[in-house]
């Protein structure tokens, strides 16, 4: 088993800009769980990425990617985690158009997948959201990749109930059943129409 070499799953997404190099990059994830940083060899050149690593159980991963166009390794970032290697690779050429694919070759490879969690269509890019993601790998750290969700604002718990004021009388359940909430939208308009 130690000599078996596995090609890991690689995910990718991208952003583009014709005027701002910091908003012109690729997200590439090499999914290699349990490969310690000291057992990994990552090479990032202007035209390729290569990764080789061995898990603590002896499984060897290897992948080599010849990129569609050139990147700027000096201004790219790497984050090695227990689940794999995350890269934010700055594209060398400033263009508003996306790369048509990640790899130079046009043939489809089984291990390469689009990262739909990070993918945004060209015409729907939001530079303010992308700045944080590229700089912090999606907010990993403080919120561990949850994207800054404030769970206290989500419903479903007793924290949503308004505290009763000290001087207000407590209403019984019988009185609350008689009141109907107001309708919203089209249903409310239908209720307002006088009957003929």
TrEMBL record:
Residues 5-103 form the CS domain. Residues 148-158 have a biased composition (Gly residues). Residues 148-196 are annotated as: Disordered. Residues 186-196 have a biased composition (Basic and acidic residues). GO terms for cellular component: cytosol; nucleus. InterPro entries: CS_dom, HSP20-like_chaperone, p23-like. Residues 168-185 have a biased composition (Acidic residues). SUPFAM superfamilies: HSP20-like chaperones (SSF49764). GO terms for biological process: chaperone-mediated protein complex assembly; protein folding. One of its GO terms (molecular function) is Hsp90 protein binding. Belongs to the p23/wos2 family. This is CS domain-containing protein. It comes from Elaphomyces granulatus. The lineage of its organism: Eukaryota, Fungi, Dikarya, Ascomycota, Pezizomycotina.
